[in-house]
């Protein structure tokens, strides 16, 4: 029983990481339909922010707390820069966006290599997060994983509340549901796009901060995880926050359970097969957005 | 009208130029293949001789391989200051294998046919060594490989200056057995070294009454270890044998500590974590865990004191020295000894000089001797414990250098392995 519980927690914590990574994408890809291949590099930017702050501020705990807002802004502004310079000009050409942002991702990776050096780097975790919480004698859960879970859930709640209740959230939803109608109603859709992109990219930065607690920071860390994030968003249903949340946790739990009884590689294969089969059955994903737009 | 014609003729000129460039390239390639068929040509004209340094300077393996490149350069600098080899200065040509095995093969070929180096030093993972092995054999050029590996290999064009299994893994297992550990869990990266090493470990365990309770592999560079650590924990094994490579170790040990596992409860013996990795993984995660190597920064002796001092002077007082670094440093001096004995840089003459035997060097790990027939070296096995200061203290050694036995011919339990 302890085993099942601790595996369940492992699955949930893998899901939380997936969720954090996919959350930003669910805005830029899900809401705006922009396939931003450089999203992984925005995660990397967030992770390196922690590394830089740790060099400047001595305390590991302080730098982690400071890193959350700073990484949000750093990644967000990088995202806005990409949007203003490139993506904005290509909204009508999704395939070109894919190629251009892939190019941007290569440029950002090389930039990281030039600035921080090619070898991966590590950060120190605050002592509060290196330990573990003993639920029972056998059931031990890692405190850094709990932190990531809380962070992911907080980000989801903030995003839902923001989209539902704030004027900006209303505008974002209006533009997503019917861009033309929003425009003729007097909404500056360009500005809304830029803000959406800022928040989506900023969330990638937060994900980057969380990832420093698990593994090393390197120029290619973004590319390794971005595929899974796209999977989560596609399976969850494009533009559907609740779909992203449900799928992230489901995938995490399935991955950890299958991995426990088989091996890492077999588990990845099985997860992919399940996803392909699912998309055959529901190509539009778990949830779909009902709109009256013709597009 | 005229403008159009002008443009067209410009295009024709460009096309002709491109064609000419292409054919020129083609001719060049043909030349070099013809040359490589007859054995590698070494550029010995001039006052210097080139050697290749082939290490991953980027990607997941860079954490380890950059330090090997640095110690190779240290040895080269020292030899150059002392007058070089056969009166020639050594000129290193460094290439980045980028933690990617096909890139290693490509860069090896470039070093041999374009830079015409006398020997290449480098590679870390066995996957990269297996990728370049055919390149060195085809071109009849020399590789000095400085890292412990899984054995079961003996290329006529590779000198192995790291440990083979009977100088590292088998002594590590002997140590665990002597400590009363009866069951093992095997964790490794998913490529040739961990899989072969674990085959050997399982054969050993079976013959020595130890139980292997589980075996798991993570893709190289993987950072998700929570499930594997849960499995390790649930198995209740008395020790873990870790063959993870690169910075997967960072994620593994962070998770291991978070799961409440400690060196007292379930020690981990690692064969790819040395001082440099301890520093970057973080001592807080590793203190008390065991390693199996042939050299530590704390190994006593005048030769080691000199090496540690020279390395710190060149690269910084906070830089530790480690086993693969020491083996790399030693490999340059062994090559020098072979070349001087042969009186030539010619690969076949160098090999012949070593085959006779008697190539020795007072290395930081102690006096090492090249074993002529296997092209491996005699090494003392040392088990160490990672201390709070990030250094590794020896807790056991084999007393004398062990004769290399890459195919484990001297062990009856190993007869089924190949």
UniProtKB/TrEMBL annotation, chain A:
Its main location: membrane. One of its GO terms (biological process) is amino acid transport. It is found in: Cell membrane. Pfam families: BPD_transp_2. One of its GO terms (molecular function) is transmembrane transporter activity. One of its GO terms (cellular component) is plasma membrane. The chain crosses the membrane at residues 6-27, 60-86, 146-163, 195-214, 226-254, 260-281. Keywords: Amino-acid transport, Cell membrane, Membrane, Transmembrane, Transmembrane helix, Transport. The keyword Membrane applies. It is a multi-pass membrane protein. The keyword Acetylation does not apply. InterPro entries: ABC_transp_permease (IPR001851), ABC_UrtB_bac (IPR017779), BCAA_transport_permease (IPR052157). Belongs to the binding-protein-dependent transport system permease family. LivHM subfamily. This is Urea ABC transporter membrane protein.
Automatic annotation (TrEMBL), chain B:
The keyword Signal applies. InterPro entries: ABC_urea-bd_UrtA (IPR017777), Peripla_BP_I (IPR028082). The keyword Nucleotide-binding does not apply. Keywords: Signal. PROSITE patterns: PROKAR_LIPOPROTEIN (PS51257). It comes from the Bacteria. Gene3D superfamilies: 3.40.50.2300. Residues 1-26 form the signal peptide. PANTHER family: ALIPHATIC AMIDASE EXPRESSION-REGULATING PROTEIN, PTHR47628. This is Urea transport system substrate-binding protein. It comes from Actinoplanes regularis. The lineage of its organism: Bacteria, Bacillati, Actinomycetota, Actinomycetes, Micromonosporales.
